[in-house]
Amino acid sequence: MDSKIDKDTVMVQVETSVGGQQMVEKSKPNKALAIRFKRILKTFEAGGEEKYVFEKKRDEQGNPSDQDAEYYSFTGSKILIDQALNDFSIEDLPCPTVIQQYKGKNGQTFVKFT
Fold first, then answer.
1. Range(s) of the domain holding residue 68
2. Residue 35 β-bridge partners
3. Helices in 8-48 by DSSP H: which ranges?
4. Whole-number Cα distances in Å, 69 to 18, 52, 57
5. How far is it, in rounded angstroms, from Cα 76 to Cα 110?
6. Which among 3, 74, 83 is positioned nearest to 35, based on CA atoms?
7. Which candidate, 26, 31, 89, 113, has a CA 20 to 30 Å from the CA of 81?
8. What sign has the CA pseudo-torsion 67, 57, 36, 95?
């Protein structure tokens, strides 16, 4: 999706009212990735399959409901956006996915789907 926060300023050529051309600055949004996720409270094996217990939505009184709670996170990480566009297909999702944090050679931190 287009980022609502992270934008670049670019110069574009537009036609003036008298038919000439003029360069103007325009704001162009960078890409962002919206990640929808559930928090896993517990994992266990049942019948040879890994099962999950997710955090539940809460009602007005703060009591857990029967529905799983869903959360959203947004990132402009070029690595994650590239992986989401090129490494995943619709058949892969939804699936248990882990995002890990790594330290690069220059000490910079980055994240990656694993």
1. 32-113
2. 73
3. none
4. 57, 13, 4
5. 11
6. 74
7. 26
8. negative
Local confidence pLDDT in tens for the 114 residues of the chain: 888 888 889 888 888 888 889 888 999 988 888 888 888 899 899 999 888 899 999 999 999 999 999 888 888 888 788 887 787 776 766 666 666 677 777 877 766 666
Residues 21 and 42 in one domain: no
User: Are both 57 and 101 inside the same structural domain?
Assistant: yes
What does the block give as tokens for 24? 């103007």
Whether 49 and 100 share a structural domain: yes
58, 49 Cβ separation under 8 angstroms: no
72: Cα separation from own chain's centroid: 8
Nearest-angstrom CA–CA distance, 102 and 85: 20
If one counts the domains in the chain, the total is: 2
